[in-house]
Automatic annotation (TrEMBL):
Native organism taxonomy: Bacteria, Pseudomonadati, Pseudomonadota, Alphaproteobacteria, Hyphomicrobiales
InterPro entries noted in UniProt: DMSP_lyase, RmlC-like_jellyroll, RmlC_Cupin_sf
Pfam families xrefs: DMSP_lyase (PF16867)
Annotated protein name in UniProt: Dimethlysulfonioproprionate lyase DddL
Transmembrane segments: none
One GO molecular-function entry: dimethylpropiothetin dethiomethylase activity
Amino acid sequence: MNLFDDIDLLYLLREFDRAYRLAPYGGSAAIRTHMRRVRDRISRSMKDNPLVETIAPASVPVTAHLARALDNGFQDSSESFVRATKKIADRLFWQFGYDKISPTLAKKYGYADILGPSGFVKADDLALGFVLFAPGSVYPTHKHDGITESYIVLSGACSQNDIGVFRSPSMIFNAAGATHTIRTSSTEPVLLAYAWTAEPQDLAAHKMTFTRKRKKV
C-alpha cells in the first residue's frame, strides 16, 4: 500500500505537519528553524506517495496507559492530533531503544516510530513518532549527538531539567548534544509527539544511551 491509500497514516502525518506549522516558537530563531526543517522534510517524504512499510505491532508495559493518555488528550487543544493518533494506535510498534534499561524505566517508558529509518514511511534525515510515559516517571539524563530533537505535548504534564512545566500544546526543544532529564506528573500519563532532524549518517549511527551511570543498589 502507498501512503495516499493509507488514509489514517496520511492524516496523522498531516497533523505532524500542522503542529510544526502552527506551534508558537516564542521568538526563538533556533526553534523556528527546526520547525521549518521538520515541515520541509515531512513534505519531501510524502511528495512521491511512498510505499508504507508493513510493521507488526508490539507493546511494552507502559502501553497499558495509552488509552488513558489518549482520553486525556481529547480534552486538550491538541485534540485533532490525538484523534488521528488513536486511529492507528493498534498498529504501533512500541519499543525501548536501549540495549540495557532498568526494570523501573522498562515499566514506565516506550516509544513508537511513524516516519524515519524504521518507520512506516522511510526517511533518512527525519524521524517522527511518539513517546509515552507512565505517571511518576523519571527519564534519566541523556543526549542525542548530532540530532536536534523536539517534543510536542499531546496529553499530560511534564518538566525538563526541572525548568518549567509543559502541557499541551507546548513544544520542548533540545539542540543537538544538549543533555536533558524528563519528569512526569505523579497522577497521569504523558504522551509526546517527537521529531528528530539530523544528517543521514548521524541518524543512522545514533545509539540511545544515558549520560550517567546508574548507581548499583
